[in-house]
Amino acid sequence: MQNPYEAAYFARKHGITQAQARRITKDFGPSRIRCDTAAQDLNLALTGTSLLHERPPTSVSSTPKE
């Protein structure tokens, strides 16, 4: 079965190592959607954020300018 992504591209796209990329594409391929979701889940588990769906910045209290 063919991997849905080339490991180096997938790793750069999701900010993960090539080893992690190979493992994800092996475990969740050939579906690109499942692979992308798994990489997002990995980023969320490791860093608390996803590179594809970044959280909006927290709002700063707005003080009117004079």
Chart the SSEs and their pairings:
Elements: H1 7-14, H2 18-28, H3 32-47
Characterise this structure:
By secondary structure, the chain is mainly alpha-helical. It has a domain at 7-47. It is 53% helix and 0% strand. The chain is built from 3 helices and no strands.
Keywords:
66 residues, mainly alpha
* Chain oligomer state: single chain
Cα(first) to Cα(last) distance is: 65 Å
Shape: globular
Radius of gyration: 16 Å
Low-confidence stretches: none
β-strand number: 0
Order of helices and strands: HHH
By DSSP (H or I, 4+ residues per run), the number of helices equals: 3
How much helicity do the residues have?
40-55%
Protein name: DUF3606 domain-containing protein
Q: Concise description?
A:
The protein has about 70 residues and is mostly helical. The chain contains three helices and no strands. The protein has a domain at about 5-45.
